[in-house]
Input
Amino acid sequence: MSTVTVLGSYNLGVTYSIDALPVWGQTLLSTHGFFSHGGKGSNQAVTAARFGASVRFVGAVGQDAAGISAREMLLNEGIDVSQLLMMPDYPTGIGTIFLDDHGHNAIVVNPGANAQLRIDTIDWPSDAVLLAQLEVPVDVVRTVFAQHSGIRILNPAPADASYAKESWDWVDILTPNETEARILCGLSPDDPVASPELLQLLAKQTHGKTIVLTLGSEGVLIWHHGQDIRIPAVSVETVDTTGAGDVFNGILAAKLAQGESLPQAACKACLGASLSVRWPGVIPAIPSVDEVDRTFEERKQN
Output
């Protein structure tokens, strides 16, 4: 079985369904609210495991009820948690998600224990694929990536303006969404630059690194070995887009670890992410391997 190490965050998710974001001083009643397992790292690790990879999760949670629950959930998914730190002096991270009637979201994260992850606390393995995000300290991610000999995938989220000066020479594949890509290029998050131009700008900014630019309902744009490739998404009724990017990254890592080509792995990842937005939440919305494979084969025949 192919191996994937996910270096990243776990956050307890708190989701509120609302008609519109509140303004300062306003109190709103949510039409629906629920707790869930979340955090980009955790979501991606679970997805990769469900898609056939042997997954090791490296991260930090509090020694509280949320942290204990996180560890149990990851174990139940068959994930190696020997490198999941339980930190008694810090709370487990929390992600608060505001979800509107169209499935769009805004998220506020308090990192808690995630921010305390340190390189000297990690007994570092060397697996086929290393996947990380930026909800844990970037210095830890940079150091670990620089030491890794396998495929190194970075989902640069959340993006920060300071990253526009980063060389990214320690990364093999970058997987931003459009907002994150604009920030990495030194643009404003809502700059109207078109996706193909944005892809070229980021490729130039990163000196030709492989870029997998996720476009939501528009699919994916890839820059790889000097060529660009467009992969369309599946058209579905959107209920909740939260975590679709995490599903994408988890499937991508699993399929690359299994030896699939980047275009094929990205196509399956795009299909999985598209199918995931039909249901609320992240982990409960991860589609099955059979459904993604069936949709992939149908696309090939059309």
